Every structure is written in C-alpha cells, then in structure tokens.
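Course assignment 3, question 2. Fill in each field.
Student: A.L.
Task: Predict the tertiary structure for the chain below.
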Amino acid sequence: MYGNHRGRGGHDLGPLGRGGRHESAGGFKGGRGRGRMFEHGDLKLVILNLLQARPSHGYEIIKAIEGLAGGDYSPSPGVVYPTLTLLEEIGQVKNIPEQDGKKRYGITPEGSAFLEGQREALQRILARMASAGSIADARQAPELQRAMENFKMALHFRLGRGSLDAEAIRKIADAIDRAAVDVERS
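Answer field:
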C-alpha cells in the first residue's frame, strides 16, 4: 500500500511522503515542471506542523498547504490521506472522531516530539514554500499577465501572416533573447 504510486499518464509519483502532485507529474498545478515542492519526508513534517497549530480535516490540510505555497501547489488527496494514515499508524497523529463521521486529525505527544527534533528541516521546508508562494503571487500580477498575453498574441499574429524566411526567424529570436536578458537583469 505504501509503495510507489502512479499518477495520470503512468508517471511515477515515488514513495509515500515524496510530496503530492496535483494532476500532473510536475508537482505543481498545471504541471509547469518547476520541480518537486517536497523531498522525502517533507510532507509529513508540514502536516505535523499544521496539526500542531490545530486539529484539522484532510481537506483543510490540503487547503492550508496550498495557501502556504501561494496557490501554486496543492497536494493531491491521494498523497495527503495515506500520509495521515501512516502518521496515525506510527503514533504521531490521532483520529478525533466527529458526530458526522468525518475524520479530524490531531498531533500526538510523540508527533510533537518528533516535530521538535526536526525543527531546522521544517524551517527550510517552510522557507521553500514561502518562496514558491511569493513567486506564485508575482506570476499573478495583472501587469505581467497582460504583458505575457500581448507577447503571445504578437507572436501568434506574426506567425499567422505566412511563412518566415531565415532572416525573419533570426530577428524574432533575437528580439525574444533580448527581452529574456532584460527580464533576467531586472
């Protein structure tokens, strides 16, 4: 049950705890391929940290992680719930039954002690998530969205006007390269 998992398209999602993926093998919404949010064991630490703040349902944990990453990453239920089950089996999380039958999870003293021993690793993970969140926020800036759409549309229209000779291709590529350098230097 806790071996390697396959996502859509048969992509290897790695062993439990390697970090969730949302609808793609890229690890981020939309599969933009910027790498994994979590390394082995990182998701467990984030979940324990969230549960130390307050007991939560699985979907609340998913939403909290998505919020920490600025909405650019959301672990799948297929990763979060098995991780919660594993944490419960090893005694770091407990199930708090509710009247409606839903499971709410809380951290145990063993989970708190483990988390305390991993505080430095947790701080690195949270810093990485905060960085991803700030990048996601910047990416959503209306000015950048408009400029990217203008660029795509200009290129689309130019390519739609007919075939390009080698000189026209070189000029377009040079313009794109100059813009890339300017963005990188800003």
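Instructor remarks: Confidence is low (pLDDT under 50) at residues 1-34. The chain has seven helices and five strands.
Grade: pending
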